[in-house]
Design brief:
alpha+beta, NUDIX_hydrolase-like_dom_sf, hydrolase, 180 residues, elongated, NUDIX_hydrolase_CS, three-stranded antiparallel sheet, ADP-ribose pyrophosphatase, NUDIX_hydrolase_dom, 12 strands
């Protein structure tokens, strides 16, 4: 049992969408008082660190509507219901980059915003890329540009806020810890 566990008294669904579900929960606090928590439920996602033989990193650039700007990110995507994370990672790598691999290593997983959301991202690594003979189609509402970048270019993109999301900054840090 957790020392500061909050017990759910009542959960009220507010919204059920394609990507998230939202609820408002009444909770009992550890001191016996009650409070309200607004919660976002998410299927989870994957992200892939993909390294080319010449030590460049596959990145995708896409428009992010909540931010009203384009970002450069590691290839990533959300898990479908019941989908295994490694299969999702392979699918997203193929769709977004035009490469596949026979070697995906799970590096870690992490929660993105645990204060209100349960989204868990599984971060994979591969340095054994194989170009697909025929590029796979992106999702119908997905538009991305593929970039290959050096570590110096990744660092500069972080400074310039072209890379401005945690999963990608975390991936870059992990690459540095691996000696790239």
């Amino acid at each position: 049992m957790c020392k500061y566990e909050e017990k759910t008294i009542k959960s009220t669904p507010i919204f059920k969408g394609r990507v998230i579900d939202v609820s408002v929960d009444d909770v009992q606090l550890p001191n016996g008082e009650t409070s309200i928590r607004e919660l976002v439920k998410h299927q989870g996602a994957v992200a892939i660190i993909a390294v080319t033989p010449d030590q460049r990193f596959l990145m995708v650039e896409q428009f992010r509507k909540p931010l009203e700007k384009q970002l450069i990110e590691v290839p990533a995507g959300k898990l479908e219901s019941g989908e295994a994370p490694d299969l999702c990672a392979l699918r997203e790598l193929e769709e977004e980059t035009g490469f596949t691999t026979n070697h995906l290593e799970l590096v870690t997983s992490f929660y993105t915003t645990p204060g209100f959301c349960d989204e868990l991202i599984y971060l994979y690594f591969t340095d054994q890329l194989v170009p697909l003979e025929e590029k796979k189609a992106l999702d119908e509402d997905e538009f991305v540009d593929l970039h290959t970048m050096t570590m110096e270019e990744l660092d500069q993109a972080i400074v310039d806020r072209r890379i401005h999301d945690l999963k990608t900054m975390y991936a870059v840090q992990l690459l540095k810890l691996r000696g790239y």
